[in-house]
Amino acid sequence: MNSSDKRIIIALDGFSSSGKSTMARRLAAAISYRYIDSGAMYRAVTLYALDNGLIAPDGTPDTDGIIKALPQIKIDFAPQADGTQHTTLCGKDVEQEIRRLRVSNAVSPVSAIPQVRHALVAMQKELGKERGIVMDGRDIGTVVFPDAELKIFVDASAETRAMRRFKEMVDKGLQVSYEDVLANVVKRDHIDSTREESPLRRADDAISLDNSAMTIEEQDAWLLQQFERVTGRG
Ligand code: DC
Asked: Which residue owns the Cα nearest ligand 1 atom 8?
């Protein structure tokens, strides 16, 4: 095997709604790698907690209850005919449900629970053993795969990110206001970057990308260039 055939790990981190998932999914498809959405795993735990009365109406998680339930929370990714994968929770397809504002509003405090992070990080590391993966999240380049060969940190203004997520939700037929989506983005940025356990931060060896003014095609080309630089492919 020469260096151009080496299957690497690509870590894509950044703030919520920075377009990481789209970038990661498209890059994985272009280079025939597996895409793993680590945020979907935190969302699935949150959905389980919401549906099992483990989150108070004011959004405070029942930390002990969630920790106790962790062994029962089975998360997987089911491949679909169109090449995408759907997140499953205890065998049920929850891909749509985990994207709703109900889950977005509750996910940051749940993902700040150290035991939740330890359990999901262990699963993510296991998935990484296959190599040839693109994983996106908040702590992929810092905690999950500190040795990833390619690390990218994506950023864009809160307004740009909120507008993107708002349009995505409207396109899916969800009833939301831009102001609510922006408030959620700002609040999550704050919780995600100030929590004690593995806060969102750029790894020292990550390449930064501000994609506020980039088209999807420009992002694709930029990512492919980074991939080719690291693997010697191209
Ligand atoms: O990427 P996303 O917006 O779907 O992620 C949902 C939440 O999960 C986000 O608010 C922070 C958390 N998260 C995390 O703490 N660590 C990750 N690796 C991925 C997501």
From this structure: 39
